[in-house]
Backbone:
């Protein structure tokens, strides 16, 4: 699957977003190393802490179906420009897809490549600093 195809899958997922409070739709498409693609959208709740982002929806869906290795994720929004993942999503990505690519689309339709390590350079991980 090409980057453009993954972006298009994220755009399809965005249309299912449940956003009665913000009106801000986000879609994500996650490609597992197995080749399977998992999509997600943001799902809001009147208790805002119960809201789930598109990226985490896709990641949790994939993990709940047995996937553990991921190649890339595409993220798009109704802003029709680059929408970066929130801090919580970045940390979930760091835990489950640290070496994966992240694709965004800018307002001109160009695909922008990034990585989890670029999005969260000082991520938590299971390594304790200075431990020998």
Residues:
């Amino acid at each position: 699957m090409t980057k453009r195809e993954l972006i298009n899958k994220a755009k399809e997922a965005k249309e299912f977003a449940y956003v009665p409070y913000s009106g801000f739709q986000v879609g994500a498409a996650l490609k597992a190393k197995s080749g399977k693609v998992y999509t997600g959208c943001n799902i809001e709740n009147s208790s805002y802490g119960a809201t789930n982002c598109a990226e985490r929806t896709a990641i949790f869906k994939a993990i709940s179906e047995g996937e553990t290795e991921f190649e890339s994720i595409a993220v798009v929004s109704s802003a029709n420009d680059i929408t970066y993942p929130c801090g919580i999503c970045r940390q979930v990505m760091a835990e489950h897809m640290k070496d994966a690519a992240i694709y965004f689309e800018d307002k001109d339709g160009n695909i922008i490549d990034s990585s989890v390590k670029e999005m969260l350079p000082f991520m938590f991980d299971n390594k304790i600093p200075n431990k020998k």
Q: What stands out?
A: The longest strand covers residues 70-77. DSSP finds four helices and five strands in the chain. The domain at 3-119 is CATH 3.40.140.10 (Cytidine Deaminase; domain 2).
